[in-house]
Request: fold
Amino acid sequence: MANDASAVFDTLSPAVSKGSLADPFTPPADSSLWRKNFLLGAATASYQIEGAVNEDGRLPSIWDTFSAIPGKVLAGDTGAVACDHYHRWEADVEMLASLGLEGYRLSIAWPRVMDAAGAPNRKGIDFYKRLLNRLKEKGITTFVTLYHWDLPQHLEDRGGWLNRDTAYRFADYADLMSCELAGTVDAWATLNEPWCSAYLGYGNGHHAPGLANDRFATQAMHHLLLAHGLAVPVLRANDPASQKGIVANIGRGTANSDSAADQRAAHLFEVQHNAWILDPLLKGSYPQDLFELWPGTEPLVLDGDMETISAPLDFLGINYYFRTNVASDGAHGFRDVPLEGVERTQMGWEVYPDGLRDLLTGFKKTYHNLPPIYITENGMASDDEVTDGRVDDTQRISFLKRHLAAVDQAIKAGVDIRGYFLWSLMDNFEWAFGYERRFGVVHVDYSTQKRTIKRSAELVEKFLQERKAKA
Ligand code: FCB
Reply:
């Protein structure tokens, strides 16, 4: 299929104002997005928005520790205040509801809800109860992620995800939360992006806890996936009515040339980004090519682990952002070869909607038991500013439109995709990039905490209103 995405971008005027030009967002009439059961929502994560890191008995997480180390996060930013959502959650839920968003994906901060001995922290749990009850009152579908990277520091002090015991502590945490929150959660995701936790956290050290060793990465991944597998039956027992799944980030790797070596490099890129996680979950084994890339890094796997990890899922959450063009590194692996003249975002990530479609249709061929899919994150950062009370985030509008078109194409090719969550509801703490990179459809002024609805959010709202009116 041709990539006509840039043509769409070229037709947009930066000065698009409400109602004055053809709507640059609303999907075409034949798009599956018009189906009213296609869930459209927004996502956030605890450490990125909550702040209040020392309140009501919250314990330190690995991100509090990591972001306090000079040089680890751009401009020395930390999540100490973030969007102050812990105090402003009521207004934030009003804002979400006023935008007509149908779904909200949030995460729970593990260090807020359990003490170091594993006992419940009532005040922390009550925060999430209030939040989820309010979301349900507003009729919003709730997707709750148990682990979006904020591991309690006391567990890291005992080895973190390198320690098998952390997987069992995670199952205890899942047990507590699903007992406490049953009835207010429509879908539970055990982990967000185990690739990032394992590889960025333990493989190259760009994320907390900042360790850098390939062997650590594969072992941390195994324990993360084990944690997921141990938690799923616990969630099923405590909250049978909800859906259970996991969220994986996926990466498109394309070859810089037709040479066999570059084609192999692109294959290995996708093994490392996708099959490393999806094969154990959906086939019950690790892809052997991974150990060609990282020789000698096979994790320690105990009898029964792979069965635990590959228990059936109700849904698979997919996060997609960009593609990477690669060539052979001349040895076992691949190296990035950034393409010139392509559209990029504030992160420097290439805008490449076809990658989402191609990966999804590829997974359908590879995994015969592929569960129903939700796109649990997709979006882009731009250097947005408020001018006369407005934010015209033209590139984001086009980005969202093109990625939703890619989702529609994948649905039409037979992939069962049930919903899409924008990343993110509001600008927030973008991990190692701090507050500089703005992913929200709502702008946050960090000096006043004022929220300003961006033009992208207005257009999503308008579409959702039109869809409702047609139903
Ligand atoms: C994903 C993370 C999310 C956010 C986006 C931009 O990898 O899950 O928290 O940082 O990237």
